Amino acid sequence: MLIEDRRRRLLDAVNAKGSLTVAEAERSLAVSRMTVHRDLDVLAAQGLVRKVHGGVVAVSQRGADLFDPRARPFEERMSLAKESKRAVCRNVAQLVGRANTLLLDASTTVYFMSEVLPTSEGRDVFVVTGSLPLFTELVRKHDGLRVALHGGEPHARTGSLVGPLAVSSLGDMRFDYAVISVLGVVEEEGAVYVSNQEETELKRAYMRHARKTILAVDSTKLGVSGAYRLGQLDEFDHVVTEKGEIAPTVLEPLKKGNGAVARR
To answer: Which position has the higher pLDDT, 260 or 147?
Structure first.
């Protein structure tokens, strides 16, 4: 592989996910650590990436905005609480089984809806998302669904389409359900938090364009606050965890592990 081709692959990988570790670059390119360091030094000197401990982060694409520091890139979050997220989505699927239109956010929790969405059973089911990974997976797995991306600019860190165009592209569309996940939920405040301002604006738009809204969160999100407040728990029609659909008043007991569950 030519040096310039190798460095272009590195830059594309950094911009695609927002960051890249030296170890990831070694595995991807099958070259030595010294070679990776040398290539990353060149890209940093050109102002194309910014070096951090253990790797680099993107500077040339969206994704350098103000994030809650606990919010990780999409690829890193995919490996966290994976089985709990799958269980959350199985419970959500029971709620949306007869829906004709769905709006799905770009979270790693909602990504697992790709594994559990029911077949259309002769109905014309239409799914819209701003998640590039989810869109790709839905198209690959579900021939019976009509799947579309809304507009927006790609965000390197989250793999989602965001910005004013994302909001305006929803136009006059109306969905049976919007399925949304968040950074954290603080039950005693009745508050829901996300990781950045663009996410707040887009998820608020999702909520406006849906007849019913579903908050999909696993129990690791309970008791977690964030830098950006999305809204109140009671703005959602359904709150769903890996334990099933629950009432906001039992979120704190569930977090503590006693398993209390109640229908809303």
So the answer is: 147
Query: How far is residue 130's CA from residue 106's CA, in Å, rounded to a whole number?
Result: 6
**pLDDT tens per residue, range 62-74:** 444 555 655 667 7
With the CA atoms of 222, 19, 112 and 103 taken in that order, what torsion angle do they form, in degrees rounded to the nearest 10? 90
- The distance in angstroms from the start CA to the end CA of the chain is 58
Q: Give, in degrees to the nearest 5, the angle at Cα 63 between 214 and 41.
A: 145
Query: Across the beta sheet with 49-52, what order do the strands follow?
Result: 19-21, 55-58, 49-52
Integer Cα distance of 109 and 87 in angstroms? 10
For β-strands 126-129 and 184-186, DSSP reports them as: unpaired
CA-based nearest residue to 249, from 263, 235, 228, 237: 263
Residue 192, classified by CB atoms within 10 Å of its CB into exposed (0-12), middle (13-18) or buried (19+), is buried
Query: In this structure, what token pair is assigned to residue 47?
Result: 């102002």
Q: Note the pLDDT tens digit of each residue in 79-103.
A: 889 999 999 999 999 999 889 999 9
In a 13 Å sphere around the CA of 99, the CA atoms on its Cβ side amount to 28
The CATH H-level superfamily of 77-255 is Translation initiation factor eif-2b; domain 2 (3.40.50.10470)
Radius of gyration (C-alpha) of the chain in whole angstroms:
20
DSSP of 62-75, one letter per residue? S--S---TTPPPHH
| Predicted TM-score of the model (pTM) | 0.71
State the Cα torsion 57-60-65-67 to the nearest 10°. Answer: -20
Q: Which of 40, 54, 41, 38 is nearest to 10 (CA)?
A: 40
Report domain extents, the chain: 3-61, 77-255
* Fold assignment, 3-61: Arc Repressor Mutant, subunit A (1.10.10)
Q: Give the position of tokens 């819209």.
A: 128
